[in-house]
Amino acid sequence: MTNIYQPFKVKIKKIEKHSDNVKLFRLVREKGKFLKNKQGLIFNPGQFVLAGIFGYGEAPFGPASSPYNDSYLDIVVRRVGTLTEAFHRAKEGDGIFLRGPYGNGFPMDFIEGKDLVLVTGGCGIPPIAAAIEYI
């Protein structure tokens, strides 16, 4: 898939319950692996994907997995509305769709080699986890 605006189907390989209203979803391509960009990443830390369930819509999520890993993509979903409720009812093996990645991401070239203090909380943790994997 080379068109970031074209949705593609992924399968929920694994679901981890982190709390009553937060789950991590491990997503895999139905055929092949996620494509890498020129830097060898499937996304740049700080970018987001649009994930959706047919009939419920789509929403932005920051990947929580390593940007180097092309075999799966992790997203964290907090139950707050109709779409995220549908995610929380989903089962392992169900299909959803993704588009993206979108956004510029974090300025990783600028911060490389510098001392960092990363402060985050709640559902802001996944994009920072991806940045830590990158560093």
Automatic annotation (TrEMBL):
<dbReference type="InterPro" id="IPR017938">
    <property type="entry name" value="Riboflavin_synthase-like_b-brl"/>
</dbReference>
<dbReference type="InterPro" id="IPR008333">
    <property type="entry name" value="Cbr1-like_FAD-bd_dom"/>
</dbReference>
<protein>
    <recommendedName>
        <fullName>FAD-binding FR-type domain-containing protein</fullName>
    </recommendedName>
</protein>
<dbReference type="InterPro" id="IPR017927">
    <property type="entry name" value="FAD-bd_FR_type"/>
</dbReference>
<feature type="domain" description="FAD-binding FR-type">
    <location>
        <begin position="5"/>
        <end position="108"/>
    </location>
</feature>
<dbReference type="InterPro" id="IPR050353">
    <property type="entry name" value="PyrK_electron_transfer"/>
</dbReference>
<dbReference type="GO" id="GO:0016491">
    <property type="term" value="F:oxidoreductase activity"/>
</dbReference>
<dbReference type="Pfam" id="PF00970">
    <property type="entry name" value="FAD_binding_6"/>
</dbReference>
<dbReference type="InterPro" id="IPR039261">
    <property type="entry name" value="FNR_nucleotide-bd"/>
</dbReference>
